[in-house]
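Hey Z.,

So I finally got round to the NDP thing we talked about over coffee. Here's the setup:
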Amino acid sequence: MSVVKVGLLGLGTVGGGVVKTIRAQQEKLSARLGRRIEIVKALVRDTRKQRAVQVEPSLLTTRFADVLESDVDIVVEVMGGVEPTYDYVRALIQKGCHVVTANKELLAKRGAELVELANRHGVHLAYEASVAGGIPILGVLRQFLRTNDIAEVRGILNGTTNFILSQMEEAQLPYADVLKRAQELGYAEADPRADVEGWDALYKLYILAQLVFGESLPLSAIERQGIADLSQGHIRLAKELGYRIKLLAQARREDGGLHLSVRPTLVPLGHPLARIRDAYNAVQVEGSLVGDLLFTGKGAGELPTASAVVEDLAFLLTQPFTPHPAWRERPTAVPSSRLSSGLDFCFLEGTEARVTPEQVLLFLERAGVAVRRLTVQYDPGSVLRVGLLAAGLREEHAELLGRDFGLQARLYPVLEAADDRGAVEGTVGW
Ligand SMILES: NC(=O)C1=CN([C@@H]2O[C@H](COP(=O)(O)OP(=O)(O)OC[C@H]3O[C@@H](n4cnc5c(N)ncnc54)[C@H](OP(=O)(O)O)[C@@H]3O)[C@@H](O)[C@H]2O)C=CC1
Ligand SMILES: N[C@@H](CC=O)C(=O)O
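And the result:
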């Protein structure tokens, strides 16, 4: 049986998973491809490092030239980052090598050039693992939703932050402890700020927009807010009002323009996205013909991600090359009123608050803000926390509330109104 020579750039969490998967599924893969997959080189930073997967020491190298010169048919790029990765991938494509990558940052920052280069050299550039880990969403969008018009795609695209938010709520664990656990489990990026500050979800949303709309916004035009400021207080108060906070990525085509955002968003407890727990991801698409679709599965971790990488690898070995549609960018966003319910959640917190609920309500009423619901947590002598849902809230209101009443204020969008009783309630104990 002939052999497909595969090179790896990176042998960390995902690279290790790819090696394990190819070994475990070799028979099945060979039967499907009529060829054996053989890993011939793996680029790493440190060849002496203890690894989760054992490989022949002679396979490991710290020199990219060893991979380039080893006559590989396909390279799996799972080292991450943009530099020097972009230069390596470029050189491989120019040599006629197919590339499978899980690197969303690379794609979001240099994808347009790589797609164009791969087209020019007639090689596959496959990246199923770059969005939503093990969920085969890109293949579905590319192959099975081409006739539908899609105006909006939204989802939970980062496993680390979803794991953090779930564990903070369910196990009442502090943010820092859960983040550490996400790193131990291999969910987090090498620099976890990419996860918690919303960058990782933003890169994935950019890629999704390219597939769904045939264009995206420049990264700098995508609204982004991370989860690092969220506390158990936020989570508890949102829940009392009937919501769960999720880091939600949303892309909408509206009036010929695009709007993309990644923000912690209040999702009604009964909404399917509110039920996506731990490192699971979800992508929701509304097709003009098929209606509402929800895809869910593990969005991070060794084997779910390796599954997407190896499926890509096997797929491209059985498919003739077809050019990839060019990636385009539209320079500016159109403001969208339809991405949220028009309600916002305002979270107020302070140790020395100089205010009563009536004063807050009066202030907001005078400012033309319609408060729909309000909840308060206050043990005398400790921190005062207020959560309110209102229509017409703006950042400036939050700032004034903070300044005038000694409360720190933050605003978050609300996806849809939850079982809203329209009443101001829960002012007990203040
Ligand atoms: N972890 C996950 O759940 C998912 C990750 N991804 C993406 O997959 C990619 C890999 O992630 P992951 O496996 O978690 O990352 P790891 O940090 O676990 O692994 C990175 C690997 O790349 C090697 N490497 C990094 N930089 C260099 C360099 N400059 N030269 C040579 N080797 C280098 C490292 O070598 P050494 O081992 O010697 O340090 C390591 O083996 C990233 O793009 C990530 O965003 C995508 C989906 C899910
Ligand atoms: N750090 C990422 C890994 C997968 O893309 C995440 O947590 O989702």
